[in-house]
Specification:
There is one protein chain. The protein is mainly alpha-helical and 155 residues long. The longest helix is centred in the last third of the chain and has 28 residues.
Length: 155
């Protein structure tokens, strides 16, 4: 069942690229940032579940070097972690992605409410699957939930 709960960003990437319009730098940056936040959230969860991902990203700073995270975003995550220690923060980049999508709709880059609703639905479904992965790890009461068996392509 762990395989079925892995959230794949593919369909979300298709929706974002097909509904968030603009060939200019702003439109491109919005699309890339939404997907970067999605990949960041997934990587944050996988760091808790897979020894291979921990090996690749032993510190949050390593995600900056990989281009998944910016220094100012790390500062926000650390500030929240200091205020609320012990709670997962993987959902925060999903909220950031939703904010960008909403701004894109307000700016007319997403043409209608249905397209925005579709992106929001995909973001919340993605976040729900991330949450299912964390629940899986909690139920197993283990630091690493044997994801190294199915995630051999993370090096």
């Amino acid at each position: 069942d762990q395989w079925n709960n892995i959230p794949w960003p593919n369909s979300l990437a298709v929706y974002v690229s097909s509904t968030l319009h603009g060939y200019d730098e702003v439109g491109r940056a919005m699309r890339r940032t939404i997907m970067r936040y999605v990949c960041l959230s997934l990587t944050m969860i996988l760091r808790a579940l897979s020894p291979r991902v921990v090996k690749r990203f032993p510190r949050m700073e390593d995600m900056i070097e990989a281009g998944l995270l910016h220094e100012d975003e790390l500062a926000v995550l650390e500030d929240i972690d200091n205020k609320f220690p012990g709670y997962g923060k993987y959902w925060i980049p999903i909220c950031w992605a939703a904010t960008i999508a909403t701004r894109a709709r307000e700016d007319g880059r997403i043409k209608d409410d249905f397209a925005l609703k579709t992106i929001m639905h995909e973001l919340t479904a993605f976040q729900g699957r991330l949450q299912a992965l964390t629940c899986f790890a909690i139920v197993c009461k283990c630091k690493f939930a044997n994801f190294y068996l199915i995630f051999t392509h993370f090096h």
